[in-house]
Write a structure and sequence with these properties.
Blueprint: H1 2-30, H2 36-63, H3 98-115, H4 126-149, H5 154-158, H6 166-184, H7 200-219, H8 227-255, H9 260-274, H10 283-306, H11 315-333, H12 347-376, H13 384-389, H14 391-396
């Protein structure tokens, strides 16, 4: 089964890669036409920059054995040293070659960094975004990934359950995005002059690509082509379906319109919500998780929209809040390979809460500090004239 498992994880890695171009479409379609290319540029430069940082140091800090009480990994794998293409990294999988595990985890780092483009859009210098992503990957993403998944990570040792990244990816990205938005402040003219999304078909196509990629995201986290991978894929499908329908109904009741954007947002919330639970719960629980995450994120998004916080593409209300619910729900509904409240283990809910609060607090605090320091040094925002003209032309010299 070694060859089958290896092939499966390589395919899953490629599926997770597709998620970042999918996110570019999803995010880009929500923006004004003059900033769509800028959004695509942020996502694609994230792939390239995170790839290089992961190669040089990021993977080592996230997945080398702990060097500081489970807080961060060491330097065993700098520039891919000791990352074998022939042998597995036994602590993670007895079958999967180390280099395959590394590339799978790279794709998680890329999509997480791309999600936090949300508060940067339409108002931040491209160069400042790149600098932020490089530092953020090393001081925020790598430590949190190590806590939850790494060799000796303290939350892993505590027994936190996160099958595919509810806290590592979604809570982390969502609360980082909120912190960044508070530092950068609103786009000029927000909210009345922002206008409608420029391209809803982009959003729907992006949703489809994200959904497709999520099967690799969650299914591949089993690290084997087995029944747990199948369960994770099934749960991914059903949670997204349930959440999409619930969000559509809620929006329909509120406005009298069957919005395709509402349907897409609900599907995304369902994918987020089931991520930490995907391989731990039965399909009926995935449906419940999807229904609940849609209602919770719907309320969070509307709360954010009524505030003065311009977290432009709602990474906080969908990824941050949805990831929190998903991590908590894992502690309630886990029955496969782990036990939660319904399986007679109420203590798991407290471990999940520690996981959520630690990730939320660290991601928010360090991201806020990093954004503030960069704002005071290299600067974050473009000039008012550049913002008015649009970042496509002023940052990239290109337009649709």
């Amino acid at each position: 089964m070694v060859e089958a498992d290896t092939g499966f994880l390589l395919i899953c890695s490629m599926l997770v890669f597709i998620m970042t171009p999918g996110l570019a479409l999803f995010y880009g379609g929500l923006l004004r036409k003059k900033n769509v290319i800028s959004m695509f540029a942020m996502c694609f430069v994230t792939i390239a920059v995170v790839g290089l940082v992961w190669f040089l140091l990021g993977y080592s800090l996230a997945f080398s054995p702990s060097i500081w009480n489970g807080f961060i990994g060491g330097f065993n794998f700098i520039a891919m040293s000791n990352v074998s293409f022939a042998n597995p990294y036994i602590i993670y999988s007895a079958d999967i070659q180390h280099i395959v595990y590394m590339i799978f985890q790279l794709m998680f780092a890329v999509i997480t960094a791309a999600i936090i483009a949300s508060p940067f859009v339409e108002r931040v210098k491209f160069s400042s975004f790149i600098v932020f992503i490089v530092i953020w990957l090393l001081i925020v993403y790598a430590p949190i990934a190590h806590w939850v998944w790494g060799d000796g990570g303290w939350l892993k040792g505590l027994g936190a359950l996160d099958f595919a990244g509810g806290t590592v990816v979604h809570v982390n990205a969502g609360f980082s995005a909120l912190a960044i938005a508070l530092v950068i402040k609103q786009r000029r003219g927000y909210p009345k002059d922002i206008g409608e999304p420029s391209n809803i078909p982009y959003v729907l196509l992006g949703t489809g690509l994200l959904w497709l990629g999520w099967f690799g995201f969650n299914g591949g986290s089993a690290l084997q082509a087995n029944g747990i991978a199948a369960l994770a894929i099934v749960n991914t499908m059903f949670s997204a379906c349930a959440a999409g329908v619930v969000w559509l109904i809620l929006f329909w009741i509120r406005t009298g319109k069957a919005s395709t954007l509402a349907l897409a947002t609900g599907i995304l919330a369902g994918l987020v919500g089931v991520t930490p639970a995907a391989g731990f719960v039965e399909p009926w629980a995935a449906v419940v998780i999807g229904m609940c995450v849609s209602a919770i994120c719907f309320l969070a998004l509307n709360l954010r929209a009524k505030s003065r916080v311009d977290e432009s593409l709602d990474a906080w209300s969908v990824h941050g809040v949805g990831g929190m619910w998903g991590a908590l729900a894992t502690g309630i509904f886990a029955v496969v390979g782990a036990t939660g409240v319904i399986a007679g283990n109420p203590g798991q809910i407290w471990i999940q809460l520690i996981d959520i609060l630690a990730t939320m607090g660290y991601a928010f605090g360090v991201s806020f500090a990093l954004a503030w320091i960069l704002k005071k040094t290299i600067g974050l925002r473009v000039t008012p004239d550049e913002e008015y003209i649009g970042l496509d032309i002023t940052q990239h010299g290109e337009k649709l």
